[in-house]
Amino acid sequence: MRHDKFDKKFFLVREDVLPEAMKKTLEAKEMIERGKAESVWDAVNRVDLSRSAFYKYRDTVFPFHTIVKERLITLFFQLEDRSGTLSKLLEVVAVSGCNVLTIHQTIPIQGRANVTLSLNVATMGIDLDELLTQLKRLEFVEKVEVLGSGA
Known about the structure:
Helix content: 25-40%
Largest sheet: 4 strands, antiparallel
Strand order of the largest sheet: 2-3-1-4
CATH class of the largest domain: Alpha Beta
Order of helices and strands: HHHHEHEEHE
Number of strands: 4
Radius of gyration: 19 Å
CATH topology of the largest domain: Alpha-Beta Plaits
Oligomer: single chain
Structural class: alpha+beta
CATH architecture of the largest domain: 2-Layer Sandwich
CATH superfamily of the largest domain: ACT domain
Number of domains: 2
């Protein structure tokens, strides 16, 4: 049985449970990408990581926002049933630069409605974490979940 990088499974893991070497690898990669470090050697020294650990993890660990760039993402919302809530929600999404591909809204039951949005995030002007933070701050949003992402 042939195994290569295309046969691998991928997992979404919260940052606080990542091993320290993976966190430092992400930090070093970001420093290199942003020009804050002149070389791998410079970056790993700044974050106190061995070069061997960096090379072990560099092609296997990525920030979530880089994985979903130029892709589709599906978000689930639970909203209070108030006039104009969907319009306000879509305004935040539009300002972020996302393109709404589909909208599904349930009939409100007991003052709550569920909304699922499929978004093209290729042209998003902010990272996904910032968009989620902005959406969660809306007073009528009770719940936001990332249901998935894909090509």
